Amino acid sequence: MATKLPIEPVVVVGMGWAGGIIASELTKAGIKVVGLERGKERKMSDYLMVHDELRFQHREELMQDLSKETVTHRNNNKMRALPMRQYGTFIVGDGLGGAGSHWNGQTYRFLPYDFEIKTMTEKRYGKNKIKAEYPLQDWGITYDELEPYYDTFEKMSGISGETVELYGHRSNPYPTKPMLKTPVLEEFEKATKKLGYKPYMIPSGNLSENYENPDGVSRAACQYCAYCENFGCEYGAKADPVVTVLPVAQGTGNLDLRTHANVTRILNDGTKATGVIYVDTLTGEEFEQPAEVVVVASYVFNNARLLLNSRLGKPYDPANGTGVIGKNYCYQVSSGYSTLFYNDREFNLYAGAGALGIEIPEFTGDNFDHTNENFIHGAGIRSTQYGNRPIANNNVPIGTPSWGKEFKEQSITYTNSILQVKSQGASMPHRQNYIDLDPTYKDAYGMPLLRITYDYTEQDNALVKYMAKVTRSIAEEMGPDHIDTVGEQAPFNVNVDTNTHNTGGVIMGAEPETSAINSYQQMWDAENVFVVGASAFPHNSCFNPTGTLGALSYRAAEGIEKYLKQGGSLV
């Protein structure tokens, strides 16, 4: 039987970006918060002089232990879902900071078009442009309404960047200047300018200069060491909850942070939550933490899974399109890229940073005419320099044997001579792409695993073919000796696809019939439950999700404060 603890004003499940922002804002306002994190505690000093590719990149030390909890996947509901046993597509963070510790740092804003995508698409192209099997919807908030929260997140995390004309207005410039433009990025810049495009440096959570944020947190500039994705930053240069918002919350004395605390259920009567049940993963003891407000701020998958296992909200039914929990699961469409091979040129590809890159805006959102295209939205076309690592880096032209003399020769030839023109496309919801509870498989605590039913769609395939032509034209302008272009989208494979941007499942909107939460991330069906994170996105844009997740988290924190004072629905 669970040990019952004293009631607290707020309990937050998950202490990554969403949970850290909410804990910081509420505790600064004098509100007591219990923060529950199922992984271990982490701090910046844990990463000092630890550039260990094998440990972090290949053995995934910062990730969830798949032997204790994983997800299952199938491409459609006629298949049997099987557990993911090794990390490929998804790298789910575990521990203080969550995915905010191991992310790359690319910090875009979504477009004004994203937040009113259904309305704007129908206005420009007519209602027949959006096919019936794509349950596209507006977000229940506009870009202009969310813009101040974007600004707050960027100032807190010190985002480095430059203003882009084709995107929404900004109340302030980025707080720090863009990152350094390397010879690799200059090649892309020169080619795209010749083609008439307007390249810009990717907005970066890797600091371009020393910076002190409005909370008084000082951080050092990026050293371009290339150990960003899957790694914690030893300098604190990469924006991370562990070095930004969490120290602020802890400094107030109002945060009770409990690590190794795995929440298994939200206690509720169907209309209101009373608290949570969690297990101490070190001792196996079970505790009940009562609270006036429950904030679910873990990863996309766990947000939906926790609600489903707690019977909060109506589960989505793909047969008739009713229900909301599990609806509009989206991913990202990353084929359509071109790889460039040079025989007589070399670049310093082992230096870099997770958000060191350059992009063009002309093919994002609705910035180009879709009248004659079998898809909507678009893709970010970019070139990046993350920094190659010795074990993982071994690219050769398509058709090269995967072992033997020729493989070795090609590997050596192109070690420092491969560039890419990448395409990261938006992911639109499809009626048959969703998440629910797996009827067969359970985790180490006997709770059903999350099941993903997902495959790429006709929309995705058309987008990839279009963007492949764009990346190919840019690649040709860059003058390599050989180009490989991936112009077709293969079926989704959970162990192969490598984009990590999962969204949806607990989506926001203006009506409870089509969404699970309102614009403050407050559940329609349980007014004292707030579900915060990329699970709120009704679709995924062509940009990385963290900036929008951060903005929505600041708005949610504002909403929670209002709710504690006045109660009831906030919209």
UniProtKB/TrEMBL annotation:
<dbReference type="Pfam" id="PF05199">
    <property type="entry name" value="GMC_oxred_C"/>
</dbReference>
<keyword id="KW-0285">Flavoprotein</keyword>
<comment type="similarity">
    <text>Belongs to the GMC oxidoreductase family.</text>
</comment>
<feature type="domain" description="Glucose-methanol-choline oxidoreductase C-terminal">
    <location>
        <begin position="429"/>
        <end position="552"/>
    </location>
</feature>
<dbReference type="InterPro" id="IPR036188">
    <property type="entry name" value="FAD/NAD-bd_sf"/>
</dbReference>
<keyword id="KW-0274">FAD</keyword>
<dbReference type="GO" id="GO:0033717">
    <property type="term" value="F:gluconate 2-dehydrogenase (acceptor) activity"/>
</dbReference>
<protein>
    <submittedName>
        <fullName>Gluconate 2-dehydrogenase alpha chain</fullName>
        <ecNumber>1.1.99.3</ecNumber>
    </submittedName>
</protein>
<dbReference type="InterPro" id="IPR007867">
    <property type="entry name" value="GMC_OxRtase_C"/>
</dbReference>
<feature type="domain" description="Glucose-methanol-choline oxidoreductase N-terminal">
    <location>
        <begin position="184"/>
        <end position="330"/>
    </location>
</feature>
<keyword id="KW-0560">Oxidoreductase</keyword>
<dbReference type="InterPro" id="IPR000172">
    <property type="entry name" value="GMC_OxRdtase_N"/>
</dbReference>
<dbReference type="Pfam" id="PF00732">
    <property type="entry name" value="GMC_oxred_N"/>
</dbReference>
<dbReference type="GO" id="GO:0050660">
    <property type="term" value="F:flavin adenine dinucleotide binding"/>
</dbReference>
